[in-house]
Write a structure and sequence with these properties.
This protein is α/β, with parallel strands linked by helices. Helix content is 28%, strand content 21%. The protein has a three-stranded parallel β-sheet. It has a two-stranded parallel ribbon with strand order 4-5. Helix 3 links the parallel strand 2 and strand 3.
């Protein structure tokens, strides 16, 4: 709730699929995907007709080759529900970085964005430990964003 989300479900929960279906009962108009894999595939079945997906990552698939990758099994949902999917990366918006930073700082000061141990994991490490620290992203070893603090 303190993140301002309509609903939050834990993908690590044994009842994740049921929880997600319950929380998206009326279906979803807009979905931001940064994971790909099984979660995106499930979400394709939860998107409203003419819904939209902003695709910004595929962390579930990053270190897998074609044979290991999950793949998308519910692709026909895109066609039958006329779902619009648009990919983007942050580099597309570098010209707006200063403006975005101002807005983020303002929202943080106003309490609209809360940064604390509940939504970020800070790992202190030397430079040689950075690869091991970043692998936590693929192993579920962090809560929220992962911050690497070089010591």
């Amino acid at each position: 709730e303190h993140l301002g989300a309509d609903a939050c479900v834990d993908y690590k929960s044994a009842s994740f699929v049921e929880e997600l279906k319950r929380e998206t009962e009326g279906f979803v108009e807009v979905y931001f995907d940064n994971v790909g894999g099984e979660i995106l595939d499930l979400m394709l079945t939860r998107i409203k007709r003419h819904g939209r997906i902003a695709a910004c990552g595929a962390v579930a698939e990053y270190n897998k080759d074609g044979a290991e990758g999950y793949g998308i099994k519910n692709w026909f949902e895109v066609v039958s529900n006329r779902i619009e999917i648009k990919g983007f990366i942050v580099w597309d918006f570098l010209g707006k970085a200063a403006e975005a930073t101002k807005e983020m700082v303002k929202a943080t000061r106003e309490g609209k964005i809360k940064i604390d141990s509940g939504n970020e994991t800070v790992v202190e490490t030397g430079f040689e430990g950075v690869p091991e620290t970043w692998m936590k992203l693929f192993e579920g070893g962090n809560r929220g964003k992962l911050v690497t603090k070089l010591v």
